[in-house]
Amino acid sequence: MRLLIDNCVPDQLMAYFTARGHDVTHVRDCLPLETTDPTIAKLSIELGSVVVTWNRRHFKRLADRAHYSALRLLLFDCPESKGQRKAEAFIDLIEFEFEQSERRSDKRFVIEVQDSSLRIERSLRPESPRRKAYGNSHTI
Fold first, then answer.
1. Mean pLDDT value across residues 11-18
2. What is the pLDDT, as a whole number, of residue 62?
C-alpha cells in the first residue's frame, strides 16, 4: 500500500506500516507544516496513496466532494495511544480493502478505525445527483 501519513499521526504508527513493507511518505517530508487538508488530499490522489489521519471530519467532508472522487482515506477515531494496536488488529482487512480497490475502476474508499470496530465505505458511482458518493458501507 502507498500511504501518505498526516502530521497528526504518531510516529510509531508510521513505523508499523513501514515495517509491514508499505510505501510510506510523511506529509512533513514533502509539504510545509501548515499545508491545508485539501492540498494533502490532492497530493494523495496524485501519488495514488491512502491518507492516514486522525483528522476525520475534515477529510470526510473532502471525500464527499466530486473534485476529490479518487480520494482514499484511512481514518482513526480512537485515542492516538491505541492507534497502533487498532491498526494491528485490523491490518488484514485494511490491506485487503486496498487490494480490492486497486481492481476497481473507482478506487476510492473510507476506512474508519474506531475504538471497537472497523467501518469500510466503498464508493458507488452516483446514478443521480441525489445519491451520496459513498453508498456501500460495512461495519466489522
1. 97
2. 85
